C-alpha cells in the first residue's frame, strides 16, 4: 500500500489526515490523469456515487447466479481500482471476474465469499478516497 510523500508540492494529492497506510496511491492516480487534480477529483466522485449501487447489483447477480453480470461488474470495479492504485481491490476484483469463467469456482458460496472480501476492501478504498485532497496550484 503506497502513501503519497509529495504532499507539499502544488497540484499533488494528499490525505486530509494522513493514514498510517493507504489503499490508494495518489501519485499513481495523478499520473493516470496527466496530473490533473480536477479530473482526479471527478473520477473519485463518480466512483463514490456509483459504489453502493454497483455492490448491490453485484450481490444480486451472485444470489441469482448470473455469472455474466458478475463478470461484467467485477471487471467494471477492476478498472477504477487500477487507476486509484488500489492493488488489493483490483486483484480481488480480477479474481472474482476470473471465477465466473472457471467452472470449479462458480458455486454461489465461493462467489459470496469472494464478494465479501472484495466489499470490505472496496469500503476501505472508499474511506481512503474520502480523505484525498489536492493542493491548490
- The rounded Rg comes to 16 Å
> How many domain units?
1
Helical content stands at 55-70%
Strand order of the largest sheet: 1-2
- Average of per-residue pLDDT values: 84
CATH class: Mainly Alpha
- DSSP E strands, number: 2
- CATH architecture classification: Up-down Bundle
**What fraction of the residues are assigned to beta strands by DSSP?**
under 5%
Largest sheet: 2 strands, antiparallel
Shape: elongated
Q: Calculate the terminal CA-CA distance, rounded to whole Å.
A: 27 Å
Helix/strand/pairing category? mainly alpha
Total helices: the number is 5
What is the fold-level CATH name, i.e. the topology? Four Helix Bundle (Hemerythrin (Met), subunit A)
What string gives the helices and strands in order? EHHHHHE
What keywords describe this structure?
137 residues; two-stranded antiparallel ribbon; 2 strands; disordered N terminus; mainly alpha; elongated; 5 helices; Four Helix Bundle (Hemerythrin (Met), subunit A); single chain
